[in-house]
Design goal:
about 600 residues, alpha+beta, DNA Primase, Chain A, DNA primase DNAg catalytic core, N-terminal domain, Dna Topoisomerase Vi A Subunit, Chain: A, domain 2, 5 domains, five-stranded mixed β-sheet
Length: about 600
């Protein structure tokens, strides 16, 4: 966990305009900056960045967030990665808490005791392997035979681990460093003798989305086992989260509008050599939900490219299973099975880019692959076969996160099994959903209320919180006739502002990330931008806020009066409640215009 205080301090020090402008060119427009949205196609700019409030909001698709959120969405970073990226750019060190789990996994003090920078160690190793390649004619000849140019080898940082047991001793002054074993570069046997893990192998650096070397994949030059040797899991490297080549492919993925997932390092590099630069590879593991989530942040289409043999089919099916829960309507997953004996490396070298991309265009949609594969396992001419079809399909269908895709697959599956869709939904225990528009990035509409206006003005100027009494607001919580979600959000916001000593350092949008109020604050951000466009400031803005606050209190008073009257009709009205009722009536009369 990264402390919220650190995140707030970080966001106070960075400028969201600088962060976004490095990726999307912004233009000044009044108090804010605008651009065509990088998250959907548009001709006129609706993507707005507020420098004063440090958030962005697109009025076209609803994309919104802070500098952290932008890096997550645009660059496909996880939350921690985005925070570290921002911190690294301004020289801040992210505080990290050591957990019992990490100590058990990596060993007590494994990545802390030496005080060494693990990223710098991996970079030093990568530089050593690249230098060693220049002095290894057999390795250079191997790469040439595989059709790789010097430029493409340089782009991916390809190197060579020489033969011999302790070559890294030349790269590191302290070959006995515990960090070298922690990072999977060196191993120690039972007699205490240390030796390099990678020997006589072509080395492919594994790079995270910030460009840091976090691991290696080593391929034998000729024959030998294992054919590929990957870095073990370390404090820097988690196979289920990382993808080889993603750092180099990000721009090409955006330009192509899709990403190809292949099985090997050489597939990625060979495809890039032939102009197909939007490929990535998993790292000795099946495709995970985290892989899918990371890729769908980058693009709307994933194409899994596997060999056409049984092993390739099994890998494709695991990829399908792990994709279902990450899908959204509008996103697309497809599968390409190459001819027997071919892989992306050999196919693109023999047939070229155009032929390979023609195959990509004809890749099988996930829905078709799912239904075809399930149908091939059963005899649909028998009742038993159709029953088995539904039994095997049920957990897969229920795992699909995209509502419209799920609906269409259920219709097709019902036809295959000789059911009606309603019968299938009953059997799968799927409740009917109200008819809705196709899913989009736009947050669900929040009904406009006076409470929402108060929240917007508080976000615009948090100092207004000092002008009001939160206790008055609390009297309306739980009462019918008052907008309860907005009222609870406002109450929580006032609590946060009351606890915060410096309003100007609090990034409210980031504070409410991943809370029940996150979607509401997306709407609030849009409203705040509109208030900014109105040009109100100073006393005029404060008057607007106080007017909205008084309207909200009046609504609460009237709701309380209605509640008291209901209790009186039920005969459960105490003397104290009667007194409060009379006082509320006087207050309402006093504020009602004559």
């Amino acid at each position: 966990m990264i402390p919220q205080s650190f995140i707030q301090d970080l966001l106070h020090r960075v400028d969201i305009v600088d962060v976004i402008d490095r990726h999307v060119k912004l233009k000044r427009a009044g108090a804010n900056y605008v651009a065509c949205c990088p998250f959907h196609s548009e001709k006129s700019p609706s993507f707005t960045v507020s420098q004063t409030k440090q958030f962005y909001h697109c009025f076209g698709c609803g994309a919104h967030g802070t500098a952290v959120g932008f890096l997550m969405e645009y660059s496909g970073l996880g939350f921690v990665e985005a925070v570290k990226d921002l911190a690294q750019n301004i020289g801040m060190v992210v505080p990290e808490e050591r957990t019992e789990q990490s100590q058990r996994r990596y060993g007590e003090g494994a990545d802390y005791e030496s005080g060494e920078n693990l990223n710098e160690i991996m970079l030093t190793a990568a530089q050593f392997y690249r230098g060693a390649l220049k002095d290894a004619p057999q390795a250079i000849e191997y790469l040439k035979k595989r059709g790789l140019s010097g430029d493409i080898a340089k782009k991916f940082g390809v190197g060579y681990a020489p033969e011999g047991w302790q070559n890294l001793e030349r790269a590191f002054s302290n070959y006995q460093s515990k960090a070298l074993t922690t990072l999977g570069l060196v191993k120690q046997n039972d007699e205490g003798r240390r030796y390099d893990i990678f020997r006589d192998r072509i080395m492919f650096p594994i790079v995270d989305v910030r460009g840091n070397v976090i691991g290696f994949g080593g391929r034998v030059l000729d024959t030998g086992e294992p054919k590929y040797l990957n870095s073990p899991e370390t404090p820097l490297f988690e196979k289920g989260r990382e993808l080889y080549g993603l750092y180099q492919a990000r721009r090409a993925i955006r330009d192509a509008g899709r990403v190809i997932v292949v099985e090997g390092y050489m597939d990625v590099v060979a495809l890039a050599q032939h102009g197909v630069e939007y490929a990535v590879a998993t790292l000795g593991t099946a495709t995970t939900p985290m892989h899918v989530q990371k890729l769908l942040r980058q693009t709307d289409e994933i194409v899994y490219c596997f060999d056409g043999d049984n092993a390739g089919r099994r890998a494709a099916w695991r990829a399908l299973e792990n994709s279902l829960g990450q899908l959204a309507d509008g996103k697309q997953v497809r599968f390409l099975f190459l001819p027997q004996g071919e892989d992306p490396d050999t196919y693109v070298r023999q047939h070229g880019k155009a032929a390979f991309e023609t195959l990509l265009d004809d890749a099988i949609p996930l829905s078709q692959f799912l239904l075809n594969d399930l149908s091939s396992r059963v005899d649909r001419s028998t009742s038993e076969g159709r029953a088995r079809l539904l039994q095997e399909a049920k957990p897969l269908i229920k795992a699909i996160a995209a509502p419209m895709l799920s609906l269409m697959l259920r219709k097709q599956l019902a036809d295959l099994a000789g059911f009606t869709q309603q019968e299938l939904d009953n059997e799968f225990q799927i409740k009917p959903q109200p008819r809705a528009a196709p899913a989009s990035r736009r947050p669900p509409p929040v009904q406009r209320s006076i409470a929402l206006s108060v929240i917007e003005l508080l976000v615009l100027d948090p100092a207004f919180a000092k002008c009001v009494d939160r206790g008055q607001l609390a009297q309306g919580l739980g009462l019918p006739g008052v907008d309860q979600p907005e009222l609870r959000a406002l109450d929580r916001l006032l609590e946060v502002l009351g606890e915060n000593k410096d309003d100007n350092k609090l990034n409210i949008g980031e504070f409410f990330r991943d809370t029940a109020y996150a979607e509401m604050f997306a709407v609030v951000e849009a409203g705040t931008l509109r208030w900014q466009e109105d040009g109100l400031s100073g006393e005029a803005l404060e008057a607007e806020f106080m007017g909205a606050w008084r309207q909200l209190l009046d609504r609460i008073r009237r709701a309380r009066i209605s509640a008291f009257l209901e209790k009186s009709r039920q005969g459960s009205w105490s003397a104290e409640e009667q007194s409060q009722f009379l006082l509320l009536q006087q207050e309402v009369t006093a504020v009602t215009p004559k």
